[in-house]
Amino acid sequence: MKLTLKIWRQKNASDKGAFVTYPIDGISTDMSFLEMMDVLNEELAIKGEDPVHFDHDCREGICGMCSLYINGHPHGPQQTTTCQLHMRSFSDGETITIEPWRAAAFPVVKDLVVDRGSFDRIIQAGGYVNVNTGGVPDANEIPIPKRVADEAFDSATCIGCGACVAACKNASAMLFTSAKISQLAMLPQGQVERMSRAEKMVAQMDDEGFGACTNTGACEAECPKGISLTNIARMNREYFSASVKSENV
Amino acid sequence: MSWVTKTLSSTIGRKLIMALTGLFLILFLTGHVAGNLQLLKSDGGEAFNIYAKFMTTNPAVKLLSYLTYISIIGHVIFSIWLSKTNRAARPVGYGVSTPPSTTISSRNMGILGTIILIFIVVHMQSFWYQMHWGDIPFVTYDGVEYKDLYSIVVFAFQNVWMVIGYVVAMAFLAFHLSHGFASAFQTLGLNHAKYSPAIALIGKIYCIVVPILFASMPVYIYFTQS
Amino acid sequence: MILDSKSPIGPLAEKWTKHKFNSKLVNPANKRKYEVIVVGTGLAGASAAASLAELGYKVKAFCFQDSPRRAHSIAAQGGINAAKNYQNDGDSVYRLFYDTIKGGDYRSRESNVYRLAEVSVNIIDQCVAQGVPFAREYGGLLANRSFGGAQVSRTFYARGQTGQQLLLGAYSALSRQVANGKVKLYPRTEMMDVVTIDGHARGIVTRNLITGKIETHAAHAVLLCTGGYGNVFFLSTNAMGSNVTAAWRAHKKGAYFANPCYTQIHPTCIPVSGDHQSKLTLMSESLRNDGRVWVPKTVELAQKLRKGEIKPRDIKDEDRDYYLERKYPSFGNLVPRDVASRNAKDVCDEGRGVNETGQAVFLDFRDAINRDSEDAIRARYGNLFDMYQQITGENPYQTPMKIYPAVHYTMGGLWVDYNLSTTVPGLYSLGEANFSDHGANRLGASALMQGLADGYFVVPYTIGDYLAQIGPAPVDTNHPEFAKAEKGVKDAIQKLLSINGTKTVDHFHKALGHIMWEYCGMARNAEGLTKAKGMIQELRKEFWRDVKVLGANEELNQTLEKASRVADFLELGELMVDDALNRSESCGGHFRLESQTPDGEALRDDENFAYAAAWEFMAENSPETLHKEPLVFENVKLTQRSYK
């Protein structure tokens, strides 16, 4: 395959950045998208040019580190992570535009690498159950209906890649935040801190500068793990009821 | 900040205001379209004029109308506030943005809303303002005097551009509602495997039927009264 | 130096309890005066950092990824073992202990393994309390499955994403401590060296991967939870960033490296499709419960397949060789990983491999689909089949999967005693980074167990004993050793940047990977290993002469990061070869062609090799010194494994 790559290059956070076009040849359809990027980088390195920096790690679709905005879609045309995208999804001679995630809360670090520390801070605001190591009840003392466990699992599969933010026209992090709030709101373990968790995590999400939700559903459509919009509805419910019921004046 | 302002100024709280005001305006539209159907009666406007008087004088309706004004203003102000936040959330846009698998309406609620707002201003100037403070002829039915709003309406819709304007505005309203109806329920957290499909279906029907009924009035008048 | 495992004496079942009692405690009011550095935020690192912070210690946690949640523990699929005996099928702590010792081919330390089995039950309780959504039965209780050929159902799982869910649990506990101000997090920060003062670990040198800034951090103890070194093979199921650098630099500062030749090759991975391949993807071994492994009986048929002249389904049953079922009638397709892997290599070496490269065997679900229906198979393995199709473009419901073994896990690692302390006092190693619990072969669903056991339930106790002894006097980075280590790191980076040769870092990494896979992979012999040693030495020289590392230190520079890691792999590779050469027996994942039974199974030599080989770094480019920790088996009888 012969392709033309239009890639966002930006030296560092304070650089303005611009698209640079690279022709590339000899790409096999069996390659993963990131392997195609590896080929490009090998070529650039041999020519003495700075390789294109991008985030990636596990390359099996689970760590959530890869993050390219390809041809107008986070993680490209398939509903999967970039590392699981293969070149057979593209046609010979195609021009592929590759950009970083765009959000105020995800500042660009270099080229296609962004800083997603804001997601960590949202979790730190309350995305956990306050239990210390040791001294917990036997695992089977907390029976959980299978349906509930399965549904909580669906929310828990979020890999924190940020595709929802990248896809959203408002750069909203509601799908991410709601997935964690939902998981813990459904499980008995999460009940004790249910209200304060919703309040704190939403407040942190707002502080990070993410946008609001317009319910377009772009996040759900692009989420590589199929996290559903019902999570956002649940988060809203949790948040309203916490606001009304909790005694935090 | 008190907990109320804190909640209502959060992104989710602001969406709550959007949803509640939106749903109230949907209720208003339902009443409005039902009442205005009397324009289609071929009684020379009698029923409509009686209805118009009732709507401007009844204290309960008055209260509702104030709520409607507040809803419109709230809906507009909060949407502007949200849009500002949303724009700030992505200061640098994408080079290539192929439309995702979402509806055009859902991505352009602000633009649709703005057009509808302009329409509302024109519409209120044409009829609401006239009814309240304008120089309107009177008619008498059964010895009671009524403002003949009907004649104002008929006169207005003799103008083909006015008719076209109204029809187009209703099309925008339809698109706005096609997303807004179900979206309001989602924002309120009312997403349920059993009921959400029904809400979506009602929303789809509503966003088609109500604007068509509204649009049918100027069209009907234009073709029957000119 | 004599290797003292510090295993407590006394009956096996009482060792840990007694040891905990005999360990010194740190006064609660003093805990906040102690600083602990945790490098790596996978299962071991995140659980340790969180647990230590809960106890009151001041913790600094470092990871090279952009978030602690991305550590490669997240990719573990199958499950986590625990001796809960919830299924009433005869499991017990002792049985899990026994299975682990036996599975490790009698090359692990009894006391450590027993403790692992003992605390395994607490891990499940802990994870459930954190909200980890394990699979459940309709009655609401936890579900279990049998895994990796175990005779009991003791594996807890969360669909095919157990590692992810466990890591997110540990990450949430860690995040909680970050919010509490007890843990300071350093993402995108790589450990470059350990600082030792008077023989004790007293801090580390790090590089900020965004700014390139070299920094020093002082602490009373340093925990290395940095995972395994499988990426020495270039192609492995490890994440691209997984590396040996932290462990290797610690090794060069005095920590012995044990059993480096023990690597686990996982039998069910997606085969290599070409030179461009950057990593291998594992598919859960649970697939072997229903899939049947086969290759054509004849080389001719295999060649036709490779050329695409016939399709797999065209080959009649009588022309298929279900070689695992044929050779191991009682275990069939469920033989342990090393046996399954080696047999796949054998049939491919005979020329019967089934893909274009000749390096693949079939894993066929035809019979299972006929027996149980496609829907039943989809319910069991749907996500794995989807993943397979995504990567290969082939539909495994219609055509057999192609699989081939790939490097997956490294049992070797930093030598640690019963306290998980390396040979450098104050320097601990947890999880895959140490060598402790899996002997020469790890059982399925035991890696997650070990990582969490070390972090949640072992190190929080054992570190206290050390800290109480050294006292809470403040530590800082003013000691000249810090400046010295910092300068060493800066010099090494400058050296890499100044070579400006002609070949890329990946070129060297791939070359090293080829050597390791060819000569130190699934089957090894003295001749090949000797050859490999020379080749690695040559490659290393060439690397330092001709590598091309672009850019500067003071920026995000992924080439520089890679170069620095590959430089360490080039040294580790030679040690692995040395270790494999030294161990002329076969055991577990280490198969020496010279040492096999008449029917081709691994043959141990307990008389001469019942020891852990711990290597001491002497000087750059000079041979390391071997120390032996004899493995004493007081409770189990050593037997030859047989899966016939």
What does this molecule look like?
The complex is a heterotrimer of chains A (249), B (226) and C (644). Chain A has eight helices and seven strands. With 249 residues, chain A is an alpha+beta fold. Chain A folds into two domains: 3-110, Ubiquitin-like (UB roll), CATH 3.10.20.30; 117-245, Orthogonal Bundle (Fumarate Reductase Iron-sulfur Protein, Chain B, domain 2). Chain A starts with a strand and ends with a helix. The mean pLDDT of chain A is 96. The longest helix of chain B is centred in the first third of the chain and has 31 residues, at 59-89. Chain B has one domain: 3 helical TM bundles of succinate and fumarate reductases (Up-down Bundle), CATH 1.20.1300. Chain B is 76% helix and 4% strand. The relative contact order of chain B is 0.13. Chain B has a two-stranded antiparallel ribbon. In chain B, a hairpin with a 2-residue loop joins strand 1 and strand 2 (144-147). Chain B is globular, with a radius of gyration of 20 Å. In chain B, helix 2 (11-36) crosses helix 4 (59-89). Chain B is mostly helical and 226 residues long. Chains in contact: A-B, A-C. The interface between A and C is large, with 78 and 82 residues.
Q: What distinguishing features does this structure have?
A:
heterotrimer; B: 226 residues; mainly alpha; 3 helical TM bundles of succinate and fumarate reductases; C: five-stranded antiparallel β-sheet; 18 helices; transmembrane (chain B); Succinate dehydrogenase / fumarate reductase cytochrome b subunit (chain B); membrane (chain B); transmembrane helix (chain B)
In short:
The complex is a heterotrimer of chains A (249), B (226) and C (644). With 226 residues, chain B is mainly α.
**Number of individual domains of chain A:** 2
Unreliable stretches covering 5 or more consecutive residues of chain C: none
**What kind of sheet is the major sheet of chain A?**
5 strands, mixed
Largest interface, C-beta closer than 8 angstroms, per-chain residues: A-C, 78 and 82 residues
CA-to-CA gap between the ends of chain A? 62 Å
Name of the CATH first level of the domain at 266-407 in chain C: Alpha Beta
Separation, N- and C-terminal Cα atoms of chain C: 43 Å
* Strand order in the sheet with the most strands of chain C: 5-2-1-9-17
Taking all residues together, what is the mean pLDDT of chain C?
95
